[in-house]
Write a structure and sequence with these properties.
Elements: H1 2-20, H2 25-37, H3 41-54, H4 59-71, H5 75-82, H6 93-105, H7 109-122, H8 127-138
Helix pairs in contact: 1-2, 2-3, 3-4, 4-5, 5-6, 6-7, 7-8
Length: about 140
Amino acid sequence: ENVSECFKQKLETLKKAYEQNPSDTLKMREYADFQMAAHNHAEAIILYQKILDKNPKRTDIIFTIASIYYEQKNFSKCEEIINRVFTYDKNNLEARYNIGVIAAASGDREKAKLIWQKIFDENPKTPMGKKAKSSLEQL
């Protein structure tokens, strides 16, 4: 009961802060993150999309939206969202890696293998290259 009341108060505080400053993407992000944590995914996506409307190159927001769709096992929508990154950063390793994750989760192990192998071959000493190698080993 006490947790529920604290939750409601926090939600209301974040909502008011967002409504008072609708152009403040930090307030919007805090409210969206809280909505996501509360499993109010539809509301969180709406708020995250408003942030992207202001700055479509926010990869952090793109990956957050994609993670919601991934959690819901909506892999096609997840991939669609991640592909937005490639419109302005064709070589984004995190986006490429995540496309491999989606492929693996969808059952397309060969596609995942090709993506991760290419990331590793081209970037063996980077953190993402090492992560790709680890994922290949686990695959």
